[in-house]
Input
Amino acid sequence: NRIYRDGVLGRRPAIPTDFAALEKAARRRMSRRAWAYVAGGAGAGTTMDANRAAFDRHRIVPRLLRDVSRRDLSVELFGRRIPAPVLFAPVGAAELVHPEADVAIAEAAAELGVPYIFSNQGCAPMEDAAAAKDRAAGPGGAPHWFQLYWSTDEQLVDSLIGRAERSGADALVVTLDTTMLGWRPQDLNIGSLPFARGEGIAQYTSDPRFVRIVKDRVRAAAGSKADVEVTWGAVRSLIAMSRRYPGALAANLRSPEPRAAVETFLDIYSRPSLSWEDIATLRGRTRLPVLLKGVLHPDDARRAMDEGLDGIIVSNHGGRQVDGAIGSLDALEVIAPVVDGRAAVLLDSGVRGGADVFKALALGADAVTVGRPHLYGLALGGRDGARDAVANIIAEFDLTLGLAGLTSVGEVARDSLS
Ligand code: FNR
Output
């Protein structure tokens, strides 16, 4: 409504209202490094193309004369009602885009009342982002979830899960498609992978277990206990400073402790040997609902149901991991019948506007998440930009729903498509 009223009054919205223009404007504002990292995909980019092609292949068939004057976009996820089925996807190293990054995105999501899934590769400790979210939320608070990358260090896994629980997360998302970082030519060609300069490791450097591992390493290398105890505080303040002044950490990576922190992170952040047996241990390790992110094959969805998981996120990581992979919406079409309402099904990768949200719900998703749209909003307008980017998608979805002749999310079904 606000956007339309502004339009009638001749006011331009703060950020472009369609993805193509949003992306173009954001690119002008972003550094070369940030653009390569955010916009880039795996290999030749054919998975990103497949994501869009799948959305374009499905067409909505509007119905008429069905009183759509009142519409309800809300959905219930894990016992909590959220105002719209659009969540903020977890994004790592977002300080490349904006110095406030995770804190600003957490506030943006809180203002809309929908969850931000804090990334394990976030650039603010989850406790800080959760506190910012609570300050920004209206009465009743706002939800957030936590996304875990399964470390080779099991104690670190438990430590991160414990922190997620204590910081009030409503769900735990375990991302499984990034046991190794994909082949990303846009980053590789400019010789810049984000984490190597210390971006996206705040979840680790704020973790007591990680701190202990780094201290032990530095101590083993230096052969002195006292030195390490004294200088570790400096590492922390460097990391904090790097959030305000990107580059500060990079400049100090020559000194032993920050370098040890980054090297330790690169060594232990992910475990390629992870198997279903590890996933089975999760039940005893957390009271939170658990979702698996990156599911694309119906047999993996079936196994997730057998293991009693609470949800899956059908995703190809925004086309950033496997080049030539199936479009996420195509995967959803075969996976949703397998889950058959037994668990929550979310979808991401390529959601750009309200029609995409509608099509995902029609093919069986309970909700979607978006990544690049909120990052481009963040690049253009900080917290407000991130908020508006997602608010626009929700507003467009609201109109699509009504114009298709429906009044609630639950009514969106396969027969709404051709
Ligand atoms: C991501 N994604 C991601 N996923 C995850 O589980 N943990 C992470 O730390 C990140 N980091 C990350 C950084 C950036 C810059 C992007 C663009 C994406 C993947 C993300 O959660 C989501 O799956 C995709 O972004 C969805 O695709 P779209 O909306 O970007 O097309």
